[in-house]
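Shapes recur. One chain:

:::
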Amino acid sequence: MKRKIVTTADGSKTIYLEGWDEYYHSKHGAVQEAYHVFIKNGLSLFSRSPISILEMGYGTALNALITCMEAERTGLHIHYTGVEAYPISPKELGQLNYIKELKAEEFQSVFEKMHECPWEEDYRISNNFVLHKKRMDFLSIDAKALFDLVYFDAFGARVQPELWTETMFEKMFRALKKDGLLVTYAAKGDVRRAMQSVGLIVERLPGPPGKREMLRARKP
């Protein structure tokens, strides 16, 4: 499917899938959405490490980058598993401006390593951040009580409804440790009900710019 780089409302870039009319991040601001959903309402609730994170939708590695930056800032030790079926190309990587928009030039080499490091093995990106990239379809995930936090950043239900079903959230329930959290930009009622049906305790939260609400779920 044809992909092109576009600029979102906060000045940061994202990828647009023309055939689906779908964006990798919010067109209202890629960076601000990532911080609001995954850091403010997810990672910031953890004060002790190590923390094991699963990202469903590694994509441009924006979420991994800001999580690594937070790890270095706070001293948290994070093991980060990113799942992606269709990695971006070096040409696409070269057009992303996250380092500039974040004013984080010292993380340029980190961001490059996140894309260049091997798949299917642990790779130490920094003192506090170990990355494990898995190239696979989301529906193939079969983890059991491994993760403290899930960043659920799949494409929307409009274009990939199979990723927002009871079947998928049952996999996420099994993958989480007790009291583990799942955060996502999505807020549709049927998504919330699918989460609840597998035993997750779900709350609605204020969404990032351009979205009224988002969801956070906990495994009891």
